[in-house]
Amino acid sequence: MNTRNCLGTISARFSTWVRWAAPLSPRYCRRIRISASFVATWCYCAFSLVGLKVITNMFAGAHVVLASEALLMAKKAGIDMGNYFDAVRNSAGNSYVWETEVPLILNQTFDPGFHIRLHNKDWNLGYEMGRKFGVPLVAFGVFEQTYYKAMYKYGGTVGSTHPAKLLQDEMDVTLDAPGFENWTYTCQLVENEMEGRTPTMAVVHQDDPSKAANSKLNARAVDK
Q1: Most distant CA pair in the chain: distance in Å?
Q2: What are 165-206's pLDDT values in tens digits?
Q3: CA 13 distance to own-chain centroid
Q4: Burial class (CB within 10 angstroms; exposed 0-12, middle 13-18, buried 19+) of 131
Q5: Sequence-distant (≥ 6) Cβ neighbours of residue 167 within 8 angstroms
Q6: Coil, strand or helix: which one is 201?
């Protein structure tokens, strides 16, 4: 059976690239180092590239909405937002989205370099998958509607973290915090001690005005 190969990125702004091949064959992965900051991963699995990407983005969207509600509770309780970000980052509630999108809420850009209309396209594809496989998507439905409300209010070309702005505007509060104006990040791989597992991707926070500015939608020629 022919293998369909497609080169894609988990995050367009950072140095972690993943290459997927998706034949209907037993799962097989091997990691290839191509530089100190780039890693390519071949994945042979039962899901297609589109299916993996859609499910991942559904998870990410759910995390954005939940993180926004958690931030609202902290704000209403009078907790320092910067300290709250660090506390969650070092707790069981941490996630990749918390580390990489909450700072975009705290600096009020709501822009991870990804259009909300594209994220909503993934919500639609996810629902098609749910219907196809007979999987009820009750919780995801709530998150999807929040994303569509944000898109209808702010437009389809705004950053995909705008559900957080929708929630803060509805509550008439601002989820900002000082110190995140030039926030950006990179990723580093941490080797696992368990045989057969790929390395873990760790987030490294940075303060870099140029890199932060270049990561935004309006800095990309394709979006102008």
Answers
A1: 59
A2: 999 999 999 999 999 999 999 999 999 899 888 899 899 999
A3: 12
A4: exposed
A5: 65, 68, 69, 72, 146
A6: strand
